[in-house]
Amino acid sequence: SDRFQRFCLALRGLPIGPINGPKNTLGHFKSQMLAPQRKALPIASVASRIVEEVKNNDTLIIVGETGSGKTTQLPQFLFDAGLCSDGKVIGITQPRRVAAVSVAKRVAEECGVELGQRVGYSIRFDDVTSNSTRIKYMTDGLLLREALLDPFLSRYCVIIIDEAHERTVHTDVLLGLLKNVQNARSKYATTEYDHSKKDSLSEKGCNGLRQTKLLTCQDTKLAPLKLVIMSASLDARVFSRYFGGAKAVHVQGRLYPVEILYTYHPEPDYVDAALITIFQIHLNECSGDVLVFLTGQEEIEFVERRIKEGTDQLPDEKKNVVVVPIYSSLPSEQQMKVFKPAPSGFRKVILATNVAETSVTIPGIKYVVDPGLVKVRCYNPVTGVESLIVIPTSKAQALQRSGRAGREGPGKCFRLYPESEFAKLRDSIIPEIKRCNISNVVLQLRALGIKDILGFDFIDKPPRMAVVKSLEQLLLLGALTKDYELSDPVGYQMAQIPLDPLYSKALILAREFNCLEEMLIVVAMLSVESIFYIPHEKLEKAKVAMRCFSSPEGDHTTLINVYRASKEVLDKSRAAGGDEKMAERGLSKWCKENFINKRSLKHARDVHSQVHGYVKQMGFAVTSCGDDMLQFRRCLAASFFLNVALRQPDGTFRALGSNQTVRIHPSSVLFRSKAECVIFNELVRTNQNYLRNVTSVDPLWLPELAPHYFSLREP
Ligand code: ADP
Ligand code: MG
């Protein structure tokens, strides 16, 4: 029949004529094509058992090998079993944005529905859901925010905490919060609800805590909340113990043998070693895709360029390599490229951060290159300095990584360190809550009415010192009153803006200083990795290009210049009647000529439009200070007074808060300047302490703009 023919054409990827009938006919084809794949997943054979367990247990722990189908299948099983028949939603949290987006897209395809309808996702700065969404993928941080507005999480019937083994701060806080919500909801479900008591319900909140202003409880018929904790680590005991002996189900995975190869000696330059290994695999091993674990966007982009250059040197028949990056801040339309099979005869090389360890499963991988490193946040509560550092992975991570090579057949994993090093690795990672700045979390818990932070039922408690430090910081920023209550309005406003408290405060101040337009750009540009792309071999050219934007005041105004120039390029091409595609192409060209990282700029534009939306919603007028850069710098000083550094006689700087010796990073426009006093937004720790994103300020402003902090000190 005609339908069947179309189906065959679609299968072969050929263009098909216009289709009559419902718009998503193609979606149905696709979902039919995916059905056999779904049936073959290990979790499919235990689907009915798992559904029963979820029905019978308030909290269930599911442990299963990565790729067994937990993330994509379980929500569909629960939906099909009628768990959201009352219009409620199944929420699934992910530690990373990229996982939430890619999985939601996949599941929408499997269900044959349009993304944003029955299946959707919601991440900070990007919400693709609707009233009809029943399966909602989101980041753990986003669900935490939703709890501020809806403390009983009343729209959810089931919440699935995925990738719990990653133990991000947000996951850990959610676990504690959800435990309370679950208790509260089962209490209300068993007692007949009396409308006259509406106030007492919302006043009590879910933790027996008083509700704060932000909280409203619209829904009064609350069914008990089901919790599912999913983890790829084999040790379910911590979670089971935390949830009062909750039942754990194990899903058997399928894994082919993976040959592990080590280097003879430690590698002095792991990026170089990774490049050599990639080419060795390409030239000497039989077909199969390669997955390389790197530590971040900058490194991935560097390796991406080097592979492309290297491939150009190869004979024509060996040029069959495609490189695809994947990391969390990659714009979402680019993320899906990683799942597309390479053209026939080509080898796909995937450059990934640890997002590919367990969060996303990429088909077709036969070779894994693992330098054995991971970038983590690390916080020193004594100095109050948070930095990103690269550390060795844990044994569990190394095993997960090598496992990626054996999903579809026997594979090989190249660990770029000697075998003796493996034994020295720690068994599993330290939960993030024990090693990061928790100011943001403390602010959110306070907004939820939780006053005794140290008494909160954490699965692992943050260090006392970190809690004390963050309370102190929030007090200095004016988010808390002297009695550690959320301040009105600043504290409430700060809790509503999904940014680091320093940035939220900067936006609030910028309104007073009449430079919100400028500060919005700065906050967006600071929220992304490396706007400038400075290749070593074109260093001089890049520096010349950079000079067109650089501002003598510092990096913040420089970033504003870049943002505005890029916007002008877009506006011009739109004004000339070009369509969006042409505008984007023009921007790409402009980025290339000016050594700007287009991916980062795109991300910054997304962040900007979202944060712009938030502040407008809060009733802030977005005005500009025009050419009055003095005003803007004063606003920066008022916002970032916690990050001030003063020049020392020897030319280095001293960071006032932490009393550390620091230098201005060579990438800063103030690197060679004579600035006496600067504010900064980032302290990078390599072999030295470097300040990035620096602007010079007048030290005399500080006691005036932050008297509570500087009156007792000498600036
Ligand atoms: P788990 O959560 O247990 O690690 P997933 O549910 O994420 O497993 O993945 C199940 C299967 O779905 C995997 O075999 C994976 O290859 C496939 N898959 C997931 N997302 C995509 C995608 N976007 N494109 C193609 N295949 C995918
Ligand atoms: Mg998963």
Automatic annotation (TrEMBL):
Protein species of origin: Spirodela intermedia (Intermediate duckweed)
Secretion signal span: none
Example of a GO cellular component annotation carried by this entry: nucleolus
Pfam families from the UniProt entry: DEAD, HA2_C, Helicase_C, OB_NTP_bind, WHD_HA2
Database matches in CDD domains: DEXHc_DHX33 (cd17978), SF2_C_RHA (cd18791)
Superkingdom per UniProt: Eukaryota
Protein name: Uncharacterized protein
GO molecular function: ATP binding; double-stranded RNA binding; hydrolase activity; RNA helicase activity
SUPFAM superfamilies: P-loop containing nucleoside triphosphate hydrolases
One annotated GO biological process: mRNA processing
